[in-house]
Amino acid sequence: MQVSIIGASGYGGGELARLLSTHPHADVVQVVSETYRGRPLSAAFPGLARTKVGAIPCDGHDAAIRGDIVFLAVESGHAMRVAGALLDEGRRVIDLSADFRLRNSEAHRTFYKAEPAPEALRKRAVYGMPELDREPIRSARLVANPGCYVTASTLALAPLVRTGIVAREGIVIDAKSGVSGAGRSKSDTLFRYAEANESTRPYGVGGVHRHTPEIEQNLGAPVTFTPHLVPMTRGILATCYARLANGIRPEAVTATLASAYANEPFVVVRPEGDWPSTKDVAGSNLCQIAATVDVRTGTVVVCSVIDNLVKGAAGQAIQNMNLMCGFPETAGLEGGGIWP
Amino acid sequence: MQVSIIGASGYGGGELARLLSTHPHADVVQVVSETYRGRPLSAAFPGLARTKVGAIPCDGHDAAIRGDIVFLAVESGHAMRVAGALLDEGRRVIDLSADFRLRNSEAHRTFYKAEPAPEALRKRAVYGMPELDREPIRSARLVANPGCYVTASTLALAPLVRTGIVAREGIVIDAKSGVSGAGRSKSDTLFRYAEANESTRPYGVGGVHRHTPEIEQNLGAPVTFTPHLVPMTRGILATCYARLANGIRPEAVTATLASAYANEPFVVVRPEGDWPSTKDVAGSNLCQIAATVDVRTGTVVVCSVIDNLVKGAAGQAIQNMNLMCGFPETAGLEGGGIWP
Amino acid sequence: MQVSIIGASGYGGGELARLLSTHPHADVVQVVSETYRGRPLSAAFPGLARTKVGAIPCDGHDAAIRGDIVFLAVESGHAMRVAGALLDEGRRVIDLSADFRLRNSEAHRTFYKAEPAPEALRKRAVYGMPELDREPIRSARLVANPGCYVTASTLALAPLVRTGIVAREGIVIDAKSGVSGAGRSKSDTLFRYAEANESTRPYGVGGVHRHTPEIEQNLGAPVTFTPHLVPMTRGILATCYARLANGIRPEAVTATLASAYANEPFVVVRPEGDWPSTKDVAGSNLCQIAATVDVRTGTVVVCSVIDNLVKGAAGQAIQNMNLMCGFPETAGLEGGGIWP
Amino acid sequence: MQVSIIGASGYGGGELARLLSTHPHADVVQVVSETYRGRPLSAAFPGLARTKVGAIPCDGHDAAIRGDIVFLAVESGHAMRVAGALLDEGRRVIDLSADFRLRNSEAHRTFYKAEPAPEALRKRAVYGMPELDREPIRSARLVANPGCYVTASTLALAPLVRTGIVAREGIVIDAKSGVSGAGRSKSDTLFRYAEANESTRPYGVGGVHRHTPEIEQNLGAPVTFTPHLVPMTRGILATCYARLANGIRPEAVTATLASAYANEPFVVVRPEGDWPSTKDVAGSNLCQIAATVDVRTGTVVVCSVIDNLVKGAAGQAIQNMNLMCGFPETAGLEGGGIWP
Fold this sequence. Notes:
The structure is a homotetramer. By secondary structure, chain A is an alpha/beta fold. Chain A has 2 domains: 2-146 and 311-325, 3-Layer(aba) Sandwich (Rossmann fold); 148-308, Dihydrodipicolinate Reductase, domain 2 (2-Layer Sandwich). In chain A, 28% of the residues lie in helices and 20% in strands. Chain A has 11 helices and 13 strands. Chain A has helices at 11-20, 52-55, 79-88, 105-112, 119-124, 135-138, 148-162, 193-196, 211-219, 251-260, 310-325, and strands at 2-6, 27-32, 69-72, 92-95, 125-127, 142-144, 171-177, 201-202, 223-229, 236-243, 267-269, 287-294, 299-306. In chain A, strand 5 (125-127), helix 6 (135-138) and strand 6 (142-144) form a beta-alpha-beta unit. The longest helix of chain A has 16 residues, at 310-325. Chain A starts with a strand and ends in a 15-residue tail after the last helix. Chain A binds chain C through residues 11, 178-180, 182, 184, 187, 189, 191-194, 196-198, 231-233, and chain C through 11, 178-180, 182, 184, 187, 189, 191-194, 196-198, 231-233.
């Protein structure tokens, strides 16, 4: 399978290149980066020196796309302009931006301050979180790859909301992210080392962060979502709070999660008390989850961790590609996490 | 005023020494550290080289205490054994441990897995959070200095709970702390650099952390409290969630906080949207707070930051000393935070 | 003494404000920052909330300067344009930029790629490293505050070169700096958190860094100087290598340093083997030094640490002000370092 | 090829497991860790959950060894006790400790304060740095895997010393390492997060670090070697200084390095000025090098970076295994580095 990566010099694009460099069935044949046009991709990612993908010269953004599979790893707003033509050429598209994630146009307008993709195009898109519903992904031509916070939050809560283990009202998600979540192109001072280091800060407080409606779409329940910036490069920890539903025993929480994910290759449910750390999943496509109940207050607490650039972006995109192409779902993603 | 610091080589003790080294009215005359017995305090804190307090040789733990004011900066369980005698000698005691914080003996037994201090001794202790109630501190002989998480959480929520702006049920506090909160003597691998770096993790999940009952005592309301370890040395951010009470306008939240703290020298209420970062208070005795309401879900979100070793420990202890001694409350604490 | 800080919202300017906020004899009456024009300085440095200096509204860059003492904490090239007029108005000027540091015009042109200050103005400037020569500073009207790397390197080596303990040829200085050394306005990607974190890198290799000629001017000897960026916010460690001069006993190295700095308030010479760490001086005006000899190769190794923003910039500038004004040299700088 | 990892729960052992988990020709059949005896290896490395190697229960240290290839990733002093028996059983051994690195017994005694391995056993060991001499490794039964600092330093300098491009006298190596270099079992306070963070420090100054004689053995020249601890988890940067030999043109430096490594799969020589950063090689087996000459002083400066746990330990060990087993040298090591 021949693969093109558009936006190859960003953090998400680079992670696609790193992971695909050892994929047994996919072959990166094209990398597009206006910034590095004409230079080998290893100029953007020195760690790719001596890999095949690292040696590929970057095409500019006006290049003809050649891949059978096209990963779009660029800012929201771009995919909706180019995906139609790519599909018409018979290519399959995996979009890492938010362009096709929300079914609700109004929510898109409200949270993204922009027009959503045309209805006809959006209808062709399949939401690509395999653990929620992998069947439609297998035959999809256009996949909307989920947001990073969304992935951690949804995997933590969806089985509990769906089964009624927790109440649908009063869900709080307090998420902590490494700074790479902001992307490579952001130059705000708060992403600078001297200001981000030794500093933890909330942002997008009060239900205004763009990932809020996507989480709500996945859960079918309203949430209060607060993202935070933590002084680390990678990783997301979502600490999720919900009310234990009436008549449910506390033991049911972990049991429900364990049962929901029993056959999932990338979701690990740990025993109560064995709390996961973002370092546990660095560099891997795993989501690790543990839960408990504060019986004093009847509050369920679920903690889930992912690597924001892997399961939260490039890794999940490759998992989607594997499904779309009939490869083993774990192909190219079997490597363990990097630790410490 | 002559001051003794017991436990001077720990993180809290060192911060007392640092802050008191330029205090206009207090004079450290004795530092006690068994580990550094016989060596100048600057052996434990090279940054105190060339300060008067740094040159003081450490007494062993069997030394006679000489200070009029005695700071106890040692593990919980010690103060309850020595405070009585110190008080009988006419000294005033500020205890940075948990020995005298909880009024409820049973809560102490449950959360600290240990017997509380004798009733008679506990009755002499005054809880030392000036913003809650500073009058009793002025005449106290024994002050229980609050916990670090407790300080950030209480200052964020107390005015809202007391005035009924938020409901008393369903409060969630998600707190993030730098690693120095664990103290200097902890050697668990999870405090080691290679494992703590690039890692955010929850711990004490499910309402079992020792600071839980102390927060509840201050608020008069149950809370679900979850602490997290974040890869930074100093700082606590408490993100607090509560339900906006019926009939209360969102604007009332920030207004209530601003009004409550209008005359407080160390609490800064920032406008909605101007979210504080732990770096904003590093090295200073400030608590900075901002709040908003997620109107979609009716959830109040209050974010407060402190330096866990200053307002969360040594700085607040000195603030208490100032009150006890009739000094200006800000004496020795006027310096701005260190940034970046 | 009334003080103006020009460039008050940069890292150096902010550190001046922090340190001067508790200075017993100096009073900041004016802060100039085009970026924060009209806003209180605490908008740029939230840690200065509730300090007097933090409440001062920033003047724009066209404001009339009012201070008796004027700190210029702006990019090189500015001071040479404004210093003359300030001096003519009777103000005393301390310039934290490089405009007046080099006596050799040609070196200035080579390393700064710019014309040096006019000869007449440069002649009025005194080089402000008190440990090298404090007498001229006392009567100076215009002080050139040394570079950060220069301070760490010079204090480590000057006594050894001057006394002939080490050879003048073959000196190597390998310096490691925290990222704040780049200043607040630099937006290069290599200063971004996600790229600077977990990364140590050299830059300006091969004798091309601007601080090279200034170190050589101080030592009177050629040096190979290599700066490195280390993932921390503050601090410089200079590891200096020189050949032990013929006939000199290894013990003479530490003895010479100890003797040279015996009466210096801000230089601590530690015993051989007690190696200093940058954390030991964070937030303080200290320079800590330790040395040894690799007797197998006859190489002297001297390690010195400073806080790049204090002894490497604002602290040393205040030390110079104290000398110029006849204040105690340590006024406002007595506080110990912040640790951990 | 069946593989046993002894010391599997240490940092080096875990990295072997991570890298071998996707090796095409080697199969980890046994992991030995007394600490995790009876528990799956993923208990020690949660990132290995869902990998085959992560599921293997750890044997205790008394288990019979089963692998054809045995990696010894334990403290120095152990391999010399067990290697003989393993060899006698027909197994091939790759020792990551220092037991067989030094040919000079006296140097071993001096720097390791311990008796070296028996002469007969040492004679069977081959030093395993393929770039120095890979032929003997192909037929080796016992390989001494090089030290981490040694690898970075040797690769930077060996071609220059061997060809006489630099003088053999006066070589200085200033190396900076992440904290994982200390190993997982070290509990000194200086490895704790709160004390290691925001701190750079030298140690083993003056030619006393254990890697000194190994570097000298590789170069055939005396060196002044100074290691430093830098606040990052992984990575080594060696900044190497040497005198340009008489009559050699500066251009010869990079040209010689480039020529020496032209066919090396894991050594990248970058153009002058394109300085490598430790992040460029994180997680990969690459060594990246760039050099220049300070023509003012005639000093050659070579900067080389490796991941201390990969090319500095586990990756190089696998490279050696590949050579010993006739596998492609890059098998299992093709993946690019992780960035950011």
